[in-house]
Write a structure and sequence with these properties.
Blueprint (H helix, E strand, L loop, with lengths): L5 E5 L4 H12 L3 E5 L19 E4 L18 E4 L6 H6 L1 H20 L7 E7 L21 H20 L3 E6 L1 E3 L12 H11 L3 E4 L5 E2 L1 E3 H13 L5 E5 L5 E2 H8 L3 E4 L14 H6 L8 H10 L12 H7 L1 H7 L1
Parallel strand pairs: 1-2, 1-4, 2-3, 4-5, 5-6, 6-11, 7-10, 8-13
Antiparallel strand pairs: 9-12
Helix pairs in contact: 1-6, 3-4
Length: 332
């Protein structure tokens, strides 16, 4: 009888994490989820309620010790647990460093003590590590984060590679560009453009477009992101980082065109790139992964599930200006 594959997914009730749960269960893996529900929702996993292969622990990743039983016999760790949103990281750098960096070390130590069963630890890194990057951006681009969020995620990534070097742990990292899709977070913080726009569309309010809307982002649909993580977990390669994006940046104006609705323009923010664009040559070559969902298809999927964002905060120019004041204060 084959030894069962057991995936531990931190942040598994969240956006990308819950889609990775879906994928792992579809591959007949047992799945253990850790999520403190700060950004995640149990509703994201409700369709698996009757699946005995899935267990969920509502805990903070920093509360775990290496000998915790959740790590026993784990074969794969997919580490999404952490806090996002750029603006709050400027206001709360201690919390971001604690959760995103120290929390990652707690997970690395637990995974290390899983011993010989561990086949791969895959860390959700961020393209924000590159800062204002040259495009298309390759993995060997200089690391120069612009804000504490980017720094905290990069330090977590460096910890992963340090554990790979010192403890010979099988570690890989995925530098996510602009993931979007169903179940994307709807926290109280001003954040990713999709959550902001979808609530505005539901409320019949104009889309708050930053600058002139010509800025481009490398949007990648969430199921494609999850497949990249699984590929990074199943490969024999270790100690490697890969960019994950569509490799085909789309403008904010194009997103508005697909969503349909009026626009109001708000001031461009300092420290934000005009274009994010992942060079995905490495991952397509080494892992055989490639994007499958087009931007138009992905936006249609999101709009079809727009009710998910009904409880999200509604942003307008005045509330955005108030929320992003520290951004302008510190990064101008």
């Amino acid at each position: 009888m084959a030894t069962p594959r057991i995936a531990l997914i931190t942040g598994g009730a969240g956006f990308i994490g819950s889609h990775t749960v879906d994928l792992c269960l579809s591959k007949d893996m047992q799945v253990r989820v850790i999520d403190n529900l700060f950004g995640g929702r149990l509703a994201n996993l409700a369709h698996h309620d009757k699946d005995s292969r899935l267990t969920v622990e509502q805990r903070d990743i920093r509360s775990y010790q290496p000998e915790d039983p959740i790590f026993k016999d784990v074969t794969h760790v997919f580490h999404f647990g952490g806090i996002g949103d750029l603006v709050p990281s400027i206001e709360q750098p201690l919390e971001y460093m604690s959760v995103n960096t120290q929390g990652t070390i707690h997970m690395l130590e637990g995974a290390r003590h899983a011993g010989a069963s561990l086949q791969k630890f895959v860390y959700a890194a961020s393209s924000s590590c590159y800062g204002l990057a040259d495009v298309p951006t390759k993995e060997d681009h200089p690391i120069r984060p612009e804000h504490p969020y980017g720094l905290s995620k990069n330090l977590g990534e460096q910890a992963c590679f340090h554990w790979h070097k010192v403890y010979k742990m099988p570690v890989n990292t995925i530098r996510i560009f602009n993931a979007y899709g169903t179940r994307s977070r709807t926290s109280g913080a001003y954040g990713a453009v999709f959550g902001v726009f979808l609530k505005q569309k539901l409320a019949g309010k104009p889309f708050t477009v930053v600058g002139d809307g010509t800025q481009k982002r490398d949007f990648l649909y969430v199921t494609d992101v999850a497949k990249a993580f699984l590929a990074a977990g199943e490969t024999s390669i270790s100690g490697r980082s890969w960019n994950v994006g569509a490799g085909d940046p789309q403008s904010v104006n194009r997103l508005v065109e697909l969503l349909g609705g009026p626009v109001v323009n708000i001031p461009k923010r300092p420290g934000e790139p005009d274009c994010t664009w992942a060079d995905i040559t490495r991952i397509t070559t080494e892992l055989g992964w490639k994007p499958e969902v087009s931007f138009e298809e992905g936006v249609a999927k999101v709009v079809a599930n727009i009710d998910y964002w009904r409880d999200a905060p509604l942003w307008d120019p005045a509330s955005i200006a108030k929320s992003t004041k520290t951004w302008f204060d510190y990064l101008s």
